[in-house]
Amino acid sequence: MTDTPATGPVQSTPSPDxxxxxxxxxxxxxAATEPPxxxxxxxxxxxxxxxALWIGVIVFAAVLVLLLIFILQNTQAVEISYFTVSGxxxxxxxxxxxxxxxxLLTAIAGSLRxxxxxxxxxxxxxx
Length: 127
Fold this sequence. Notes:
The chain has 127 residues and is mainly alpha-helical. The protein has three helices and two strands; from the N terminus they run H-H-E-E-H.
């Protein structure tokens, strides 16, 4: 990246004072003939539901690829015992099952808390 020097001194000139404006709304025939101001054009870079969905799909696909690599690298069998039940499963499956159980417990606790908070908030009548 190269910087180009200024060719001469830069002087800012003050803008002329704007004409005095009347704070009262215009009255008369000219007020009725002016069209209303057009709404600002939407920003084409703003997020939409579709773009959020695609971001979610891409993140989900990346997590699945990482999960597949994890499963393929942890195929050795481990002995699992839970109370009186015992068995042999691969290490990856055992870790994935424990992760899924943790996620479900967290989701249940979060859902119950949201339900509790929604019950506390009075509902406003819909019009």
